[in-house]
Specification:
The protein is of the alpha/beta class and 344 residues long. The chain contains 14 helices and ten strands. The protein folds into two domains: 151 residues, Rossmann fold, CATH 3.40.50; 182 residues, Dehydroquinate synthase-like - alpha domain (Dehydroquinate synthase-like, alpha domain), CATH 1.20.1090.10. The structure holds nicotinamide-adenine-dinucleotide and zinc ion.
């Protein structure tokens, strides 16, 4: 089933009216409760609010147990609906809880961070982290509706806005030279509100076009893993040492590390490799990953869902809009990239 996306919160009341759910639950974290729920409340019939703690470190089975427990205590049934109101942590975990509660109840994603709008809330991947491995437990389950309203971004902290521009840049690299060059013009924060809106909408359309062609990640969708082999290992590494690294920050680093491999050992031209590093410098500070242990990183990469004990695979860019999926890379190539990432 393909995802239905509507722009603007006004799409919600007619949807709810047409479905007649028995009970309505809104899943929030403390930030989306404070900043986003007030914008939604007037549009909702009677509902119950389930609040969890924000942040990737809470995207765990323990939090799911809490959510399932609240649903049970508040008499949720198979005809209940969960509205996931928040960033990618809320949409990933709320969707997973809905997909598994009583063998699956309906859910709607209402993304409030830019990353969730352009990426996490779309495409039907649900997940939680497990034993410090990113997105290890999850399912493919399509929301009944994704309702996107960019007014939520007014309260999103700048650091999250900047970090999540890396998924937008990834989409641009996978699309064409035009989109890529737009994002190389200036730091993301310096685009006007209307420019940002246009960039966000194009990014959403691109992600939709890819997941529509390959919803189960068997082939074409794998391109969206660009930068993510290194990014997920970095995130797991930081989780292991109880340090914070936003998903978008990890993706930004992953994009330059994987571009290094694509240029040094494969066919990515030097000027595009330099452009990717230039984009990083436009938006991010130099990374502080000097102390990182390369062998631990390699072990984490082998545990990534995309890989197996014998091979680490990456999506390697060839030029804007062209890439090779499932490219096997060697440990020494990865170590060289990690070295480049830690002191470029
Ligand atoms: N399922 C997928 O296809 C997919 C794709 C990409 C990323 N992801 C996942 O998404 C997650 C990252 O998402 P994220 O960057 O949104 O992280 P997040 O959910 O942690 O949100 C970032 C921070 O912003 C706060 N916040 C969100 N919206 C706000 C608003 N409007 N105003 C004020 N504060 C707000 C949150 O409370 C949180 O503190 C990761 O777990 C990643 O694995 C999933
Ligand atoms: Zn991502």
């Amino acid at each position: 089933m393909s995802t239905v996306i509507k722009f603007g919160l006004n799409a919600l009341p007619p949807f709810l009216k047409s479905r007649k759910y028995s009970t309505l639950f809104v899943l929030v974290d403390e930030n989306s409760k404070k900043h986003c729920l007030p914008l939604l409340k007037a549009l909702l019939p009677a509902h119950q609010v389930v609040t969890i703690k924000s942040g990737e470190r809470n995207k765990t089975l323990k939090t799911c147990e809490f959510i399932w427990e609240v649903l049970l205590k508040k008499n949720a049934d198979r005809n209940s609906l969960i509205l996931n109101l928040g960033g990618g942590v809320i949409t990933d975990m709320g969707a997973f809880c809905a997909a598994t509660f009583m063998r699956g109840i309906d859910f709607v994603n209402i993304p409030t961070s830019m990353l969730a709008m352009t990426d996490a809330a779309i495409g039907g991947k649900t997940a939680i982290d497990f034993l410090n491995y990113k997105n290890m437990i999850g399912s493919f389950t399509t929301p009944q509706l994704v309702c996107i309203d960019t007014q939520f971004l007014k309260t999103l902290p700048t650091k999250h806005l900047v970090a999540s521009s890396s998924e937008i840049f990834k989409h641009a690299l996978l699309q064409n030279k035009n989109e890529t060059n737009t994002l190389l013009k200036k730091p993301f924060l310096l685009f006007s509100e209307s420019e940002k809106l246009a960039i966000i909408k194009k990014s959403i359309r691109f992600k939709m076009s890819v997941v529509t062609l390959d919803s189960l990640d068997k082939n074409l969708r794998k391109q969206l893993n660009l930068g993510h082999t290194l990014a997920h290992a970095l995130e797991s590494y930081f989780m292991l040492y109880k340090k914070t690294l936003f998903h978008g920050e990890a993706v930004a680093l992953g994009l330059i590390g994987e571009a290094y491999i694509a240029h040094r050992f494969y066919s990515l031209p030097y000027d595009l490799f330099l452009s990717i590093v230039f984009w990083y410098d436009l938006n991010f500070l130099k990374p502080n990953i000097k102390e990182i242990n390369f062998n631990t990183m390699l072990k984490l990469m082998h545990k990534d869902k995309k890989n197996d004990p014998l091979a680490i695979k990456m999506v390697l860019l060839e030029s804007e809009g062209h890439f090779a999926i499932d490219t096997r890379v060697t440990h020494s190539q990865i170590k060289e990239a990690l070295k480049f990432m830690s002191d470029f």
